[in-house]
């Protein structure tokens, strides 16, 4: 079928959405076209391309791209990873260092700013416009911007700049950076890639779903408790249980944690408290913070305790634990989640080690917590292909227990407001296509 | 008294027993094979040397193994509602080093493990067992599991491999 704007509008109601939003391959292609290829998508952190010629490759929606630090000017470019000759990807690896990109097929060669500099045996093109002087043959640049080290790219040349897109939700990135005694972050310690056999939106929906932990993660919390109950008197609990146990927190804790939503589908859970706010102190960290910020400012920085922040649709961050996850859709029922971790520059190594422990326990393919979440997503994917129930509910605390706070709306933590906010953004993106409107 | 290099047959038999315990889902007995400081490590990169400042797929100490044991038998663990079945094969067992003073013996082997949980997954790679051989007994100081596709995108890895 072909979706009219009218049809799409009928799929998103204020407190419920239609099940096929998660299951229809055609809608998935439309999402790639109208969301992932139309808005700001996170591509990487500047510290991942620290040296001239360093590059990363990724897909922006369905389009292969390269983020590269110019070997001459040191600027960061985001380019289409596609040779302008026959169209092959010029960079094949996920990361590396290159003085130039040379296509493996016929050897057309491009500088790190995309400029074409070579094509073998070029006399064959004499008398045509195929020449290294033709700027149309450069690797095409993709609009990109850097927010305090976080590089986003946008395949669409129209629309707001990056700061306008992020809005007040950018304060979560600010707080993560502020948590570095030197005020700087650096990607450290590699990446985890976790393959989810489900639609990308289940993962994003779940980030600020605070009604599932005590059900989905009850077994992990109980397991932690059972382990602690076996400990002999006087033995302190392990560092693992400090991270896992909060996932079994009470409904009240999640109510009190609060949730804030902004425009474009962005949102964060937590505020002054979150599941990260009762971690033990890492020796030396406070001293380093005090030395650089003073006591008062340090307290202010560390009093902000957000859980997940969603930069809809592609990036989610945990500022208080310095881990981020990137959402890379692959198909309507397949998604890759990348987990990266940051070193807080100027902080003791133990901070990074706790972040690594956290990511292993919660975000790794071996995680007990993540595995139970994924089990729920897979059952959602399978369940929603049934027409037994056509609608997906998101009505908790609708228009209740919420107030305006700056440019965001703050609500009770177990409200479904983050879901409602995401699907309003989804609807705005999906129904904004000019071409489609003309047809409809 | 003379100290002998451990017999390869004895070491191999120990590795088989360890794998059997995994195949039987007997995590309690499996954990008992480890020393108190014992660790199970599955790095995410083939040449990874640091389990602390670099991410790994697993890096479990004994408390973490205990938590997993309790989770495995919990009645309400959504991802563990059906039986996990596995079949491990171990070969090419080699003793790489032995320190008779400390009793520390490093053993490498190749493995293939088929895990069936709703669908069948094949894992393959190398093991490195750091074993502590004392008073005729063998304990595991560290088991390091390097998957040949350690840096790939993985679905849930539901059990120790």
CATH superfamily of the largest domain in chain A: Naphthalene 1,2-dioxygenase Alpha Subunit, Chain A, domain 1
State the shape of chain B. globular
The total number of structural domains of chain B is 1
Contiguous uncertain segments of 5+ residues of chain B: none
What is the CATH topology assignment of the largest domain in chain A?
Naphthalene 1,2-dioxygenase Alpha Subunit, Chain A, domain 1
Number of domains of chain A: 2
Overall pLDDT level of chain B: 95
CATH class of the largest domain in chain A: Alpha Beta
Q: Describe the strand arrangement of the main beta sheet of chain A, using strand numbers.
A: 13-19-18-17-16-15-14-22-21
Q: What is the assembly state of the chains in this entry?
A: heterodimer
Whole-angstrom Rg of chain A: 23 Å
Question: What is the CATH-assigned architecture of chain B?
Answer: Roll
Mean pLDDT of chain A: 94
Largest sheet of chain A: 9 strands, antiparallel
The interface involving the most residues is between: A-B, 45 and 36 residues
Shape of chain A: globular
Structural class of chain B: alpha+beta
CATH architecture classification of the largest domain in chain A: Alpha-Beta Complex
How would you summarize this macromolecular structure in one to three sentences?
The complex is a heterodimer of chains A (440) and B (161). By secondary structure, chain A is an alpha+beta fold.
């Amino acid at each position: 079928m072909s979706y009219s704007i009218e049809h799409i509008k009928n799929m998103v109601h204020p407190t419920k959405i239609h099940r096929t939003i998660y299951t229809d391959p055609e809608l998935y292609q439309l999402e790639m076209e109208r969301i992932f290829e139309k808005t700001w998508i996170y591509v990487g952190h500047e510290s991942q391309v620290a040296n001239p010629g360093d590059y990363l490759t990724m897909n922006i929606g369905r389009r292969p791209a390269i983020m590269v630090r110019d070997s001459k000017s040191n600027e960061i470019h985001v380019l289409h990873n596609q040779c302008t000759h026959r169209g092959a990807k010029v960079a094949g690896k996920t990361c590396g260092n290159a003085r130039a990109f040379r296509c493996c097929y016929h050897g057309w060669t491009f500088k790190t700013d995309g400029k074409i500099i070579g094509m073998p045996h070029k006399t064959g093109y004499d008398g045509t416009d195929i020449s290294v002087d033709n700027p149309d043959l450069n690797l095409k640049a993709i609009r990109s911007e850097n927010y305090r080290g976080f590089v986003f790219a946008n395949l669409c040349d129209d629309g707001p700049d990056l700061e306008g897109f992020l809005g007040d939700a950018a304060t979560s990135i600010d707080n993560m950076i502020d948590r570095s005694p030197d005020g700087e972050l650096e990607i450290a310690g590699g990446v985890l890639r976790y393959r989810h056999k489900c639609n990308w939106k289940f993962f994003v929906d779940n980030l600020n779903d605070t009604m599932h932990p005590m059900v989905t993660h009850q077994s992990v919390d109980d397991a932690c408790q059972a382990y602690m109950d076996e400990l002999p008197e006087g033995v302190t609990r392990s560092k693992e249980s400090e991270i896992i146990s909060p996932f079994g927190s009470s409904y009240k804790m999640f109510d009190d944690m609060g949730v804030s939503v902004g425009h474009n589908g962005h949102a964060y859970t937590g505020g002054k408290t979150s599941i990260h706010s009762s971690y033990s102190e890492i020796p030396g960290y406070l001293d380093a913070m005090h030395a650089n910020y003073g006591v008062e400012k340090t307290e202010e920085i560390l009093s902000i305790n957000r859980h997940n922040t969603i930069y809809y649709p592609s990036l989610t961050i945990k500022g208080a634990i310095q881990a981020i996850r990137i959402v890379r859709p692959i198909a309507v029922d397949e998604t890759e989640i990348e987990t990266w971790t940051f070193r807080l520059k100027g902080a003791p190594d133990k901070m990074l080690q706790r972040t690594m422990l956290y990511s292993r326990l919660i975000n790794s393919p071996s995680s007990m917590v993540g595995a139970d979440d994924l089990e729920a997503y897979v059952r959602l994917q399978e369940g929603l292909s049934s027409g037994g129930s056509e609608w997906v509910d998101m009505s908790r605390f609708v228009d209740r227990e919420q107030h305006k706070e700056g440019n965001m709306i703050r609500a009770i933590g177990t409200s479904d407001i983050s879901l409602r906010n995401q699907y309003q953004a989804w609807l705005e993106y999906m129904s904004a296509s000019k071409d489609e409107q003309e047809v409809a | 008294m003379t100290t002998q290099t451990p017999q390869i047959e004895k070491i191999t038999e120990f590795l088989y027993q360890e794998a059997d315990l995994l195949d039987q889902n007997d995590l309690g007995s499996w954990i008992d094979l480890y020393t108190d400081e014992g660790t199970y490590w599955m790095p995410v990169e083939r040449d990874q040397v640091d389990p602390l400042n670099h991410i790994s797929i697993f890096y479990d100490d004994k408390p973490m193994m205990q938590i997993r044991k309790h989770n495995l038998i919990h009645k309400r663990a959504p991802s563990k509602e059906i039986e996990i079945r596995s079949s491990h094969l171990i070969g090419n067992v080699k003793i790489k080093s032995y320190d008779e003073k400390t009793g520390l013996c490093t053993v490498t082997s190749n493995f293939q493990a088929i895990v069936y949980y709703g669908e069948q997954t094949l894992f393959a790679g190398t093991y490195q067992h750091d074993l502590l051989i004392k008073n005729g007994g063998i304990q595991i100081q560290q088991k390091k599991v390097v998957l040949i596709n350690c840096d790939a995108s993985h679905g849930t890895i539901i059990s120790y491999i």
